[in-house]
Design goal:
The structure is a homodimer.
Chain A lengths: L1 E7 L7 H8 L1 H8 L2 E8 L3 H9 L6 E2 L2 H5 L4 E6 L7 H10 L3 E4 L2 H18 L3 E2 L10 H7 L6 E7 L2 H12 L4 H10 L8 H4 L2 H15 L8 E3 L7 H9 L2 E12 L2 E12 L11 E8 L4 E7 L3 H21 L22 E11 L4 H11 L4 E8 L4 E8 L2 E2 H13 L4 E8 L3
Parallel strand pairs in A: 1-2, 1-4, 2-3, 4-5, 5-6, 8-10, 10-17
Antiparallel strand pairs in A: 7-9, 7-11, 9-10, 11-12, 13-15, 13-16, 13-17, 14-15
Helix pairs in contact in A: 1-13, 2-13, 5-6, 6-11, 8-9
Keywords (chains A, B): Amino-acid biosynthesis, Methionine biosynthesis, NADP, Oxidoreductase, Threonine biosynthesis
Pathway (chains A, B): Amino-acid biosynthesis; L-methionine biosynthesis via de novo pathway; L-homoserine from L-aspartate: step 3/3; Amino-acid biosynthesis; L-threonine biosynthesis; L-threonine from L-aspartate: step 3/5
InterPro entries (chains A, B): ACT-like_dom_sf (IPR045865), ACT_dom (IPR002912), Asp/hSer_DH_NAD-bd (IPR005106), HDH (IPR016204), HDH_cat (IPR001342), HDH_CS (IPR019811), NAD(P)-bd_dom_sf (IPR036291)
Chain lengths: 428, 428
């Protein structure tokens, strides 16, 4: 028997699939116990079809989804279109028709995964999406199959290659945010509207999916606080360096006594922490747990071949189940009631960069404000800024999100103080 | 139904199993779809039994393996005794009796895995051993289930926690090998006879198992060249630092055009390479492949809880198959004919540390010897050593193992030259 695939979309990632089927055919066929073949490829319109054929792509291109759904020979539908619609409608159709589905669509899975997953279960078919988080890193299946025995307490992830590329340039080469963005756009890492990447939204989607696998809670995007990298200044980068940190955009999901807390935010990462050396477009997921303790999964977060590798790994698992005539278990079975954390339980050290008038008594007044919220200082750096202004950098001891909100409000009431930035500071 | 375990041995790792079953019981039971229970524990003799009971261990201890083998209620036998015998005999008995087996015994699996695996297949039972390589890192199942779609070209691993702890101390604190060893022994990381750890034998066992999962080749320990860390001097460490490297004991398995080559050797790792920041007793497996490109799996290489986590992950998978009444696939199915590489195909840059008389013309003579083997220099450092001697450090361009053997032989013929050390130099 040959396992037949129907591809939805033929962009960058899709064309990585034939590469693997060709270059690694023996291993893939042996693991799947069957040949895997691309049977039909859905494209947008006749124009795209003509263009792809002219470019030498020798596939059976179709422009109507029903050509794939109604084809009883197609076992697995591979959705690589991205965005919510029409991907959602097409996947729904495929699942309803009893076809297995593989998707790399993190936006869709983070926002509508629940209903698609439950539809797949009703229909007794597989719905896998390893490529949706951290592209080439096999993190989801590893969580589902290996970390089952372990209780995860916190996940820290460098989950967005674009912003990590930019931050690496800002840290290693002293570039400004603006210069880094322009270069990222030139290299094709950032889109012309880079909002999703630089504001932490893309990473927040991934945090939603990681919460399911790591903590069994299907939270929504609105449950993930997110803050991007656009406010990071060269001064912040330099101070971080000086104090032994690098700034990374970190997706953090942790379980506190009261529940789950997830956020994406620029964070000071100690230079000795394994996440600190995750550079350029690479991603990494750092897992803290009661059994293993600390483990990290590192690799490319995007790209044609890495993403296609995750997609094909999903395909091989489904093909194998088809061959063994077993259903296989749902991709993620870990499920608990959603309980979100009280902000008073979410604790961290923080970095404050504050501009003050360059006159006596400012530091004392700052100390009083922080002290009124029971926040103590671990490190303070005071230096002359431009003109009549001074710059005060504070690293606090551990404090809660509640205290952070309170002290931020109090600082904003003092006209003389200008809080330039506040970032989380991770421990070793 | 309750899944009943028979434990062979009740050492450090074994006692990590009840910890996980208790602290993470809900998740484990949900994933296994059954309760998991330690039914019987095999100990050496009545003395050990009395001692363990007195220490408050409330288990059904037995001293005869047949009490476990003949117990039809026991589904899974967990071997945590270590060494070859009697572990091999006991596992064989268990498999023959149709019991599933989980083992953490890398020595056994590297030396006799083949026959045990084939016995398990004949009997239609599972034989899993995730904990055998890199303790808490879920690397084997990840290779078997996720990297199936990918073709691995090279694996680089920091696979021995003891030697990595020692090297970290030598690099970070400037300790000598001897001081590092004494401390490792004091902390219980190194045994009184540290040979297996410091001479790369332990890492070579792991390389054997990684070769099976990564390249489908069941090579023998004798096929893995190994060289330990005992000859590394503080001078080597300092020069490495100066040139932008750290020295790590690296297990390297690569496929060249002519076949597989595996070795464990001290290696210069560029500071920017992800393996360079794997410190202390941590392990990491860095995988190069045609699909993902570069990925790394990092975590504790040993220890009670990490190792027990891998063991329990294996147990959960088996329990789940029992519940689903499916057999599950063999732990590793990737299998190809063994083909070992010609040494002329195995290429790397190398570091040479050579002592010469402190007189004119020495460097020229050295250059001539290397040049006669077509080896060119990337970097040369010459400095005055003690007394009448000088020290020459060379980093070569890429050269083959054959050239390495030839040039080493030629250098040994010149009485004036003393080659202090030769280490592999990895690229970025």
């Amino acid at each position: 028997m040959t396992i037949k695939l129907g591809l939805l979309g033929f962009g960058t990632v899709a064309s990585g699939i034939p590469f693997l089927l060709e270059e690694n055919g023996d291993k893939i066929t042996a693991a799947a116990k069957d040949q895997i073949e691309i049977s039909k490829v859905l494209v947008k319109d006749e124009e795209e079809k003509t263009r792809l054929l002219a470019a030498g792509n020798d596939y059976h291109f179709v422009t109507d989804i029903d050509d794939i759904i109604s084809d009883s020979e197609i076992d697995i539908v591979i959705e690589l279109m991205g965005r919510i619609e029409p991907a959602k409608t097409f996947i729904t159709k495929a699942l309803k028709a009893g076809k297995h589905v593989v998707s790399a669509n993190k936006d869709l899975i983070a926002s509508h995964g629940k209903e698609l997953i439950s539809l797949a279960q009703d229909k007794g078919v597989a719905f896998y999406y390893e490529a949706a988080v951290a592209g080439g890193i096999p993190i989801l299946r590893t969580m589902a199959n290996s970390l089952t025995s372990d209780k995860v307490t916190r996940i820290l992830g460098v989950l967005n290659g674009t912003s990590n590329f930019m931050l690496t340039k800002m840290v290693d080469e002293g570039w400004s945010y603006e210069d880094a963005l322009v270069t990222a756009q030139k290299l094709g890492y950032a889109e012309s509207d880079p909002t999703n990447d630089v504001e932490g939204i893309d990473a927040a989607y991934k945090a939603v999916i990681l919460s399911q696998f790591g903590f069994g809670m299907t939270i929504g995007l609105e449950d993930v606080t997110h803050k991007g990298i656009s406010t990071i200044s060269t001064a912040d980068v330099a101070v971080a360096q000086q104090l032994g940190y690098v700034i990374k955009l970190v997706g953090a999901i942790e379980e506190t006594p009261s529940g789950l807390f997830a956020e994406v935010s620029p964070s000071f990462v100690p230079k000795t922490h394994p996440l600190a050396s995750v550079n350029g477009v690479m991603n990494a997921v750092f897992v803290e747990s009661i059994g293993i303790g600390q483990s990290m999964y590192y690799g490319p977060g995007a790209g044609q071949k890495p993403t296609a590798t995750s997609v094909v790994a999903d395909i091989v698992r489904i093909a194998r189940h088809l061959n063994d005539k077993t259903i296989g278990k749902p991709f993620n079975e870990f499920s608990r009631e959603i309980k979100l954390s009280d902000l008073s339980d979410v604790k961290s050290r923080y970095y404050f960069s504050i501009e003050t008038p360059d006159k006596k008594g400012q530091l004392l007044q700052l100390a009083e404000i922080f002290s009124s919220e029971d926040i103590s200082f671990e490190q303070v750096l005071q230096q002359k800024a431009q003109g009549e202004r001074a710059s005060v950098v504070i690293i606090t001891h551990e404090m809660s999100k509640t205290a952070l909100a309170n002290v931020t409000a109090k600082l904003s009431e003092v006209a003389e103080f200008k809080v330039l930035n506040t970032f989380k500071v991770l421990g070793e």
